[in-house]
């Protein structure tokens, strides 16, 4: 071990080694830098949250307010703007179309993803990891990267501006996301349960119905809610292939806000909230289901 030589001054006092002084200075610099970085980070986060929260509160107050000119709060609150927006833009019809498309696409996504997940979890085959990576592409790549080619193909084969076409493009998002969520649940099932069931004469259908499906019910629930929210919020590819009679709620809201013209701001804010409220509601359900599932699984 290398020893540090101490130096003695003329009056007999010991001086700290040069290496020790350098180490202390560097430590102080690191502490100051870290605390400064942490402080700046918190300031930026708080500022960002304040801006987002402020804009959200402003939209909410404007949507529910009667008159708001130069005062801290509106002079009164009303639902009239929501009623006018609902009737003027036929929000109910667009919401119905959106729910039909998303619900059907969610069911089909689960039906297709469960067997796929079982094969990925139980079978080894060439390029398995490449296939798993391929399933992750739709929610890792920018939407436009695959939305424009898909839209071009759909217009050429006549599936654009149809309900069938909108359901199929939602599957591009739903199936990979469902596989991504269900795969850990399927891998956690003990294969010995399947071997025992097969040794007792269970068929593949019985194995799925009585062993596999009950074991992954929490995963199916979490997958269904999450892909439902994700498809409800799909915008780019729906914007490219939807028509006047097949627009979803978010595309309709975007179209109205883009060409708002002389519409009252309060009505436009009310229209925006008709899209925000369902998304917030579904998000809270997703969080509750995830928390409930974790408690049931003892995590």
Describe the structure.
Helix content is 74%, strand content 1%. It is an all-alpha fold and 299 residues long. It has 2 domains: 14-64; 81-296, MetI-like fold, CATH 1.10.3720.10. The chain has a two-stranded antiparallel ribbon with strand order 1-2. A hairpin with a 5-residue loop joins strand 1 (7-8) and strand 2 (14-15). Helix 9 (217-232) packs antiparallel against helix 12. The chain starts with 6 loop residues before the first strand and ends with a helix.
**What is the terminal separation in angstroms?**
48 Å
Q: CATH superfamily membership of the largest domain, which one?
A: MetI-like
N-to-C SSE string, H for helix and E for strand: EEHHHHHHHHHHHH
Overall residue-averaged pLDDT value: 82
Protein name: ABC transporter permease subunit
Subcellular location: Cell inner membrane; Cell membrane
Membrane topology: Multi-pass membrane protein
Transmembrane segments: 42-64, 97-121, 133-157, 163-183, 216-241, 266-289
Please outline the helices and strands.
Elements (H helix, E strand, L loop, with lengths): L6 E2 L5 E2 L2 H47 L15 H9 L2 H32 L5 H9 L6 H15 L5 H25 L3 H9 L4 H12 L1 H16 L3 H6 L7 H10 L6 H32 L3
Antiparallel strand pairs: 1-2
Helix pairs in contact: 1-12, 2-12, 3-6, 3-9, 4-6, 6-9, 7-8, 9-12, 11-12
Short description:
With 299 residues, the protein is mostly helical. The protein folds into 2 domains: 51 residues; 216 residues, Orthogonal Bundle (MetI-like fold), CATH 1.10.3720.10.
